[in-house]
Please model this.
Amino acid sequence: MNQRRSQILDAAAVLIGRQGYTATSVDDVIRESRLSGKSHFYHYFKSKEELGYEVLDRQFERFAERGLAILREPMIDPLERLYLFIDSLVAAHAERGCQGGSPFGTLASEMADQHEGFRLRIAHVFSRWSSQIQSLLWEARPQLNDDVDAVRLSRFVIAALEGALMMSRVKRDIALMEGIAEDLKRFIGTHLRASAASQSASGSPSLPNA
Amino acid sequence: MNQRRSQILDAAAVLIGRQGYTATSVDDVIRESRLSGKSHFYHYFKSKEELGYEVLDRQFERFAERGLAILREPMIDPLERLYLFIDSLVAAHAERGCQGGSPFGTLASEMADQHEGFRLRIAHVFSRWSSQIQSLLWEARPQLNDDVDAVRLSRFVIAALEGALMMSRVKRDIALMEGIAEDLKRFIGTHLRASAASQSASGSPSLPNA
DNA sequence: TGCAATTAGGACCGATCGGTCCTAGTTTAT
DNA sequence: ATAAACTAGGACCGATCGGTCCTAATTGCA
Model:
């Protein structure tokens, strides 16, 4: 029933991630998901736009389940989780051979000034992503300086990661993203309370003092 | 002679910046630059691709002359110049009403995995941009820690700025970019030698411990 | 058994794409 | 004055775009 839909959405996600929304034609999607023809596709989706929306929703759901899940691991120190999350994005990008950056950033650049529907949906995606990091920072507040602005810091993290993805994609060099990821972790580390001094970026953070 | 060419390139730059390369048709460019027809356009450019290349070159030249020029101001403290540069990008984006982000980042997201010619040219743009910041950091080295990696830091700055542009474009909220810019300046400030404490970002960086 | 959903596949639509070709009038340098 | 460059404008090309319509075979479920 929705198996075919999933098939189509998966194929479309790959294509849109690789080529962008505009450059991905409905025929491309049909070919990739082995449908029998246009009518077969339009049996499941009423327009290319609707397909795009659903692909975006699906991409974020998957990202929230798989990628963002690290941020919620209850057994790991919050900041350590954030570092692991950053590393996981680097690893994922390395696995893809530095191709096809963030599905959100790519779509954002393409559609933000072009299509209000997409713009709002992507804004929502970033907002939810940001919220996840804010929760984590809230959890980590005993270790953090009192003046840490969780909203701002979470946005900074996302921006740096998105920029890193874009640049290492252009240069096709994962080392670029690795360097930025390390710097980003170091920056997060500078928000630690002065009392907790034994910080190392990829090493384990120290416990809060009394 | 090349006045018409400039006219075309300017129009194309605006359109490509707003809609992207693929979504900008040759007819759009013709309309916007008030040419008489297709042949008139193809009198000056042999293909849309060549137009795209020249637009990109021109955009970077302008950026190097106007935007990046701040980085070379000999009468201002190097790091102060870097902060001013960051602020100038924020201001420019605010003036544009948070629309049409970085011409390079936008084109990068669109073309990186799609068109090798563009990918290489954009990589070159980022490389030159990065070099400018590296020179500045080299100038500032008496104030900086010995272990500062200029290449890495310069890339970090660009990535954060590009990410900030993209996100504040999606959210249409300049405050987002302002926050990231401030954090970025603070991060740069953390690279200061412990001995040089009296630095003014726009919020002053961290205190050196005794 | 029978009805509904799914699959199959092709013809077709108007619009737009990048690009070519052709004719002819108008500037501009030499 | 004369050739070369520029401006003007339209017809046209094959390809592709998103999308519709239609017929018919096949499947799954009640």
About this structure: Residues 25-27, 38-39, 42, 47-48 of chain B lie near DNA strand C (CB under 10 Å from a C1'). Residues 198-210 of chain B have pLDDT under 50 and may be disordered. The radius of gyration of chain B is 19 Å.
